[in-house]
Amino acid sequence: MNFLNINCLVYAKQPPALAGKTRYFFLFLFFAVLFSGNLYAASSDTVMADSSWGFWFRSQISQHPDVVAAKERMYADLATADSLDQPLYNPEFQTEYEREGADNNFRLGLSQTLDWWGKRDQQRAQATFGRKAARRAFELAVQQKSADALKAVVDWNAARAQADLARTQEEQLGTLFALVKGRQHSGDLGQVEVELAFLGLSQKLNDAAQAQARYQQAAARLEELLPGWAAASQNIPESLWAVSRAENIDQWVEQHPAVTAARADWEVTKKMADLARLRGKAEPTVGMSGGKGSGSTVVGVTLSIPLNIRNNFRAEARAASRESFAAEANYRAVQRRQLAAIRASSATLKEYEKRYLRWQTLMDGRARSSGDLLEKQWRSGDMSMTEYLLSLQQRTEGLIAGIELNTQFQIARIEWLLQTGQMENALMQAKR
Asked: What pLDDT band is residue 235 in, cutting at 50, 70 and 90?
């Protein structure tokens, strides 16, 4: 409304010819802004709709106290690296005053220790690798927490599915028990069938209680990892389960945060060993001073060099060198361990994927039809109560096996993403 009022005032103060042009200009500008705003809003909504789950999940992970603590440790390590970038020695200010008879003698001076052997260059290199190690350690912590949260979501979905299945079977056997008792009164069934139905219902009561307890435990675990969790967010995007067929094991190993962090730590210790060797070399301190003594102006130049005679710092250099060798060995161990973990997770994922897809093919349409068929056979008298309850139990075990296969396949996929270091990329591409 204010925009239109301003337009009207501008139009009223101008000549008629110019006012007409101004009117069309403002109308054009108004619709252009309106159209561009709607277009931006539409595009923003589309982007958020596509990436809302991944964005929400990553924002939840970033708020977890463990991740916040890891971030603060990273900031502390980065600040330590910044301190290594600073000059090694500060200048020193010196003063001297003495009373000599009637004269007041004084002297002022400045001295500076020189970085003669290039120790600061070693510290700068150490700072560079220290920053890299800090960032990779934080990245590894985020990926690990993301994997834990995703596994919690998978466990929650599996527990919910089993709880729903147990509750449905409890209701079915409760109905069956009532039906059997009714048929017993009418003389169609004997006491044996009633007892079998009672035993079956008792077992399902226990199964339903255990399933509900597991569901509540999974929900509590999920709320701890994802405080903003809601039932609307329960379905992980299918794109996260798309198995990559590319085999870039060597690249995955070298780019994994654990491996890159270990290598950066090794580089840091190498620079520390170089710096320890340089500390055994003396560095000069030069200074200039000026003042007054015995009524005359005094100017002086000083030079001091420490004599590393009693302690040549070779023991410190040997210790730093051994630390470097240990860090290299640790890097090699992490590298080998990560390679084995990638191969194991890849093999596990392939096996669970193959079995789960086969189970889906076998159970296609049978989950509902098998239950109806069994009930129809029992009602028609073609199946005894014992056979019917045994068949129901086998059907239940088959459905639970499907839930567990799906769960293990998804957990294997999450573990593969974690071990290959592809977790962040997968979450960025996770879309509804």
From this structure: confident
Helical spans, DSSP H, in 116-190:
119-185
DSSP 101: T
Range with the largest mean pLDDT of 25-39, 343-357, 376-390: 343-357
pLDDT-based confidence at 148, cuts 50/70/90? very high
- At residue 182, the pLDDT reads 57
Residue environment code for 50-84, b if the CB has 16+ CB neighbours within 10 A, otherwise e: ebbbbebbbebbeebeebeebeeebeebbeebeeb
Burial call 122-151: b when 16+ CB within 10 Å, e when fewer: bbebbbbbbbbbbbbbbbbbbbbbbbbbbb
The pLDDT of residue 7: 40
Q: What DSSP element (H or E) covers 111?
A: strand 103-113
Chain centroid to CA 240: how far?
Answer: 15
Nearest to 57 by CA among 257, 223, 228: 228
Pair of tokens at residue 306 = 């420490």
Spell out the domains of the chain, with CATH numbers in brackets.
63-428 (1.20.1600.10)
- pLDDT at residue 209 in the model: 86
Nearest Cα to Cα of residue 256 among 414, 369, 424: 424
Q: Are 217 and 169 in contact (CB under 8 A)?
A: no
Return d(Cα 81, Cα 420) in angstroms, integer.
Answer: 28
Q: Distance between CA 55 and CA 59 in Å, rounded?
A: 6
pLDDT tens for each residue of 358-367: 888 877 666 5
Neighbours of 400 (CB within 10 A): 17
Q: How confident is the model at residue 83, as a pLDDT?
A: 92
Helix (H, G, I), strand (E, B) or coil at 380: coil
Task: Give me the amino acid identity at 251.
Answer: Q
The structure tokens listed for 75 are 């900031």
Q: Summarize pLDDT for 176-211 with one digit per residue, the tens.
A: 666 666 555 555 555 556 566 666 667 777 778 888
For the sheet containing 92-100, what is the strand order? Answer: 92-100, 103-113, 285-293, 296-304
* Count of positions (residues) in the chain: 432
Q: Which of 78, 61, 66, 62 is nearest to 134 (CA)?
A: 78
